[in-house]
Write a structure and sequence with these properties.
- By secondary structure, the chain is α+β, with helices and mostly antiparallel strands.
- It folds into 2 domains: 105 residues, 2-Layer Sandwich (Pseudouridine synthase); 170 residues, Pseudouridine synthase (2-Layer Sandwich), CATH 3.30.2350.10.
- It is 22% helix and 28% strand.
- It has 6 helices and 13 strands.
- The strands form 2 sheets. Strands 1, 2, 3, 4, 5, 6, 7, 10, 11, 12 and 13 form an 11-stranded mixed sheet that branches.
- Strand 1 and strand 2 form a beta hairpin.
C-alpha cells in the first residue's frame, strides 16, 4: 500500500502527491501542502480542494481507495489554503463526531509553527480576542469585541532572530484565520501573509553583501503564509489511546529558517532568553 495518495484536478491540470502521516481502520491523517484548499471555497466552489478530490476518488473507486477499502471520509478540521501540515480525517461518522467533540473542547490539541515579523516582549503569551468576518473585505477576518466569537491562542517563542521570531502556536478554539488574526493584533504578522500585513521574506534583507546577478530577479525565501500545522494530539476515538501525530516542516520554511540562523541569528537561544527574563523579573522584585 502506497504511503502517498495521488490526486489530480483535470480542470486546472494540477497534480498532488499527498503523504499519509498515519492510518488505521478508523483514522487517516494526511499532509496537506500549501496551495491546496481543505474544503470547497464558498466564493468559488470550482477551485480544487482536498476533500472534493478525495470524494471524487471515493465515488470512482480509485486504486488507493480500493487498497484501503474506504467507503467514507470526512475531515475533522480545516487548514487555510496556504497553511501546510496535518489534516485528520475520519473513516466513519461516529469517529468523526468523536474527533469534532475533542477538537472543540478548548484544550490544546494542535501545535502550529509560525514565522513572524517582529519580536514579542514575552517568551510566552496568550491572545483572547473575539474574531468576526471583516465587514468590507470578503473572506477576511478581524478582531471584533462586539460581534466576534470567543477565540483563544497560546504562543511560545521557539527561536528569536534579529527582526523575526519562530513561534509555537496552540489554538484552543477553531476560528477562521484565528492564528493569523491574533498575531496581527499583536503587531506580529506572519511572514508572507499579505492579507494580514506580513511581507515575504527575502534573502537580500538578511544578507548584508547580497548581490543579484544582472538580468535576474530575486525570488523570496518565503512567499506564502509561513504557517505549518506541525503536531496533533488526540485520544483515539475507538481505543482511547493518546496519539501524537507530526508533520515535518516543508522545504520553504526549512530553507527560510536556515538562512535566518545563518545571517540573522541573535546569539541567544530561546531558553537563554527566557532565563534572562526570569532573572530580570526577580531583580525587579
Amino acid at each position: 500500500m502506497s504511503n502517498c495518495i495521488k490526486l489530480s484536478a483535470p480542470q486546472t491540470k494540477e497534480f498532488w502527491e499527498i503523504p499519509v502521516l498515519f492510518e488505521d481502520s478508523h483514522l487517516l491523517a494526511l499532509y496537506k501542502p500549501s496551495g491546496l484548499l481543505s474544503c470547497p471555497d464558498r466564493y468559488d466552489p470550482r477551485r480544487p480542494n482536498l476533500m472534493s478530490l478525495l470524494r471524487k476518488d471515493l465515488e470512482r473507486g480509485a486504486v488507493w481507495v480500493r487498497e484501503r477499502n474506504i467507503s467514507y471520509l470526512a475531515n475533522a478540521h480545516r487548514l487555510d489554503f496556504e497553511t501546510s501540515g496535518i489534516i485528520l480525517l475520519a473513516k466513519a461518522k461516529p469517529v468523526l463526531v468523536s474527533l469534532v467533540d475533542q477538537l472543540n473542547n478548548e484544550t490544546p490539541h494542535k501545535k502550529y509553527t509560525a514565522l513572524v515579523r517582529g519580536l514579542p516582549h514575552e517568551m510566552e503569551f496568550s491572545v483572547l480576542a473575539k474574531i468576526a468576518p471583516h465587514p468590507i473585505q470578503v473572506g477576511l477576518m478581524r478582531v471584533d469585541p462586539d460581534k466576534g466569537k470567543k477565540s483563544i491562542t497560546h504562543f511560545k517563542v521557539k527561536e528569536r532572530f534579529l527582526a523575526h521570531t519562530l513561534l509555537e502556536c496552540q489554538p484552543l478554539t477553531d476560528r477562521t484565520h484565528q492564528i493569523r488574526v491574533h498575531l496581527r493584533s499583536k503587531s506580529l504578522p506572519i511572514v508572507g501573509d499579505r492579507h494580514y500585513g506580513g511581507k515575504p521574506l527575502w534573502l537580500s534583507e538578511l544578507k548584508a553583501d547580497y548581490r543579484l546577478k544582472p538580468g535576474r530577479e530575486e525570488n523570496p525565501l518565503m512567499n506564502r503564509v509561513a504557517l505549518h500545522a506541525e503536531q496533533l494530539v488526540i485520544k483515539h476515538p475507538v481505543t482511547e489511546a493518546e496519539m501524537v501525530m507530526e508533520a515535518p516542516w516543508p522545504k520553504d520554511l526549512t530553507v527560510a529558517v536556515k538562512y535566518l540562523r545563518k545571517y540573522a541569528a541573535t546569539g541567544t537561544t530561546a531558553s537563554e532568553a527566557s532565563s534572562h527574563e526570569m532573572i530580570a523579573s526577580n531583580d525587579e522584585t
